[in-house]
Amino acid sequence: MTDPALNRTVDRLAEPVFSLSRWLTKHPETGGEEKESSAYIIRFLEEQGYVVERDYCGLSYSFRAYRPSCRPRIAVLCEYDALPEIGHGCGHSLSCGVSVLSALAVRKCFPELPCEIDLIGTPGEENIGGKVILSQRGGFDRYRFAVMGHMDTANIPQWRILACSDLYITIRGKAVHASAAPWEGRSALNAAQLFLHGVDMDRMRHRPFMQIHGIMAEGGRNPGTIPDLAVLSCYLRAASLTELKELQKDTIRMLKGTTYATQTDYTVEQRWGTLAELHYGQTAVRMFLDIFRDLGMEAAEMKYPKCSTDAGNVDLVIPVFHPGIKAADTSVNLHTAEFEQCMHGDRAVQTLKNGAKVIGNFLWQTAGQESVMKQLTEEWKSYRGL
Questions:
Q1: Beta strands in 219-312 (DSSP E)
Q2: Which of 92, 125, 160, 205 is the most buried (most CB within 10 A)?
Q3: Residues above pLDDT 90, as percent of the chain
C-alpha cells in the first residue's frame, strides 16, 4: 500500500518543483555543458535546506545534496542533460523534478526515517556517462542503494537495459586520382563499406540482443579522388558486460579482416566509458507493480531489454532501481521533438506528481524496513556474483 499522507504531500509540493522542471525544459544544455542547469538546481535545493557539494567527486556540473547525519544513506539520482537540437526529448528535465519532489516529500513526511535521502546530480547521461565517472571515483560507495524514475511511454517497474560501448574507427588508405591510376590507391571507403557489410552478414551468429549500429562520419570528399580516410562511429550493445566483450572481439576481428583484404590500416578509439546492464530483481519489480496499482496507474514489465544508460555502472557498486514513468502515449518515441513537447503543460505536471509518488513510496517502503532492504540487496548480490 502507498502512504496517503505522502501522496498528499507530493501534490502540495509539486508546483515549485514543476517550475524547476519547466526552467530546465526551456533552457536545455547538452551533456558536459550543464553549467546553468546544475546551478539552477543547486540554488533550488539550497533554498530547501540542503547542504550542496558542487562538482561532486571532481566532475564538473555534478552535485551532492544532503543533510548532515550519521544515518545510512540512499541516493536519488538526478539527470538534467538534453539532446542536441531536440532539447529535453529524453525527458530528463521532468525526471529530475521527479527525483527532487520525491526526496522533498519523503523528507517532509518522515523526518525520523532511519535513512537519509541524498540527491546526486549526474551530468552527461547521453554522452560522457557522468555516472560512470562518479562510480569510478567512489561517489556511490557510501550509499545503500540508488533510485530514479525515467520518463517513458508506459509505466514500467524496472528498466531492462543493455550493456553498451562505443567504437570510433579510423581507416586510412592511399589517395590517388580515381581515373588516372586507381590501381595505385587504397580506398578507405571500400574498407569501411566491406566492414559494414561484414557486420551485417555476421548478425546471424549474434546472441539475442547483441546489436551493432553506427554511422559513417567520413568517407571522402571528392569523387575524383580515391578516399584515403574513412571514419565510422558505432555503438555495440549486449545483454551483459560478458556478452558485450564477446561482441567487441568479434567486431575487431571483422575490422582486421576487412582492412587486411583492402590493404588499409585502422585505429580504434573508445570515446566514452562502457555502460553496464542493470540487475533485475523480482522483489523490487513486485514492489513497484504494487505501488503503480495502488496509485491507479496501469503498469507492466518490459518484455525484453533495450537501450542503455550509465545507471548500470552505479549498479556495479550498489543496487539501482530504475522504473519508467509514463509521460507520453506509445505512439510517441523517446529522443524526438514530440516527446519533448510532453515535458510541457498540465499533463507534465501530472506526470511529475505520478513519478514522485512512485519513487517516494518506494523510498518509504525500503528505507523504513531493514528486512526489505536486505532482500533487495541479496538479490542484487546474487546477480552480480558477490
A1: 229-238, 265-269
A2: 92
A3: 94
**Contact (CB, 8 A) for 132 and 279:** no
3-state secondary structure of 303: coil
Mean pLDDT, to the nearest integer, of 322-340? 96
Query: How many Å apart are CA 378 and CA 195, to the nearest integer?
Result: 44
Mean of per-residue pLDDT scores for the chain: 96
All three cell numbers of 84: 542536441
Q: How many CB atoms are closer than 10 A to CB 344?
A: 16
Among 386, 161, 154, residue whose Cα is nearest residue 288: 154
Name the residue type at position 228: D
Residue type at position 226: I
Domain that holds residue 232: 163-269
Domain count, the chain: 2
- In angstroms, the CA 338 to CA 125 distance is 20
Helix 92-109 × helix 35-47 angle, to 10°:
20
Question: Considering all CA atoms of the chain, what is the largest pairwise distance in Å, rounded to the nearest integer?
Answer: 82
Q: Which pLDDT score is estimated for 368?
A: 85
Burial of 158 from C-beta contacts in 10 A (0-12 / 13-18 / 19+): buried
Q: 22-33: string of b/e by CB count within 10 Å (b at 16+)?
A: bbbbeebbbbbb
Cell of 152: 517513458
What cell does 252 get? 575487431
If you write DSSP's letter for every residue of 168-224 in order, what string do you get? Answer: EEEEE-B--BTTT-GGG-B-HHHHHHHHHHHHHHGGGGSPTT-EEEEEEEE--S-TT
Does 141 lie in the same domain as 124? yes
- Please give the DSSP secondary-structure letter assigned to residue 270: -
What pLDDT score does 77 carry? 98
Count of residues making up the chain: 386
251, 269, 287 - which closes a domain = 269
- Residue 266, C-beta contacts closer than 8 angstroms, at least 6 positions apart: 169, 170, 171, 172, 191, 255, 256, 259
DSSP state of 91: -
Residue 273 pLDDT greater than 90, yes or no:
no
CA distance 198 to 195: 5
pLDDT digits (tens, 9 = 90+) for 197-220: 999 998 888 889 999 998 999 999
What CATH number did the domain enclosing 264 receive? 3.30.70.360
pLDDT at 226: 93
